Amino acid sequence: MSQTPQTPDGWERSEDALHRTFTTDDFAGALALVNRIGELAEKANHHPDLELGWGRVVVHLSSHDVGGVTERDVALAQQIDTIAG
After folding, report:
1. d(CA 20, CA 40)
2. 1: pLDDT confidence band, cut at 50, 70 and 90?
């Protein structure tokens, strides 16, 4: 049985997924963040669920093929943290 990956700092784990809300100054900033996350996700061939709102982006990461969180999710979460920094 494989070990469950560590939850990255700032992320929450629930319902077999990682979740984090990022805030921005306005809608344009949130949209720009969604686009940057989309670019990372395409490169990784791993696609999170995203919620876009005024001044916020909510990210949900899960490996649907295995029904939970994997190292692939953790790696993408860390990349997202870097660009959102």
Report:
1. 16
2. very low
Count of the separate structural domains present in the chain = 1
> Is pLDDT of 10 > 50?
yes
Distance of CA 58 to the CA centre of its chain: 8
| Inter-residue contact 21 to 42 (CB < 8 Å) | no
Residue 50 lies in a domain: yes
Sort strands 17-23 and 56-61 into parallel, antiparallel or unpaired: antiparallel
Residue 49, domain member (yes or no): yes
| Residues of the domain holding 16 | 12-84
In a domain, 4, yes or no: no
The pLDDT of residue 85: 85
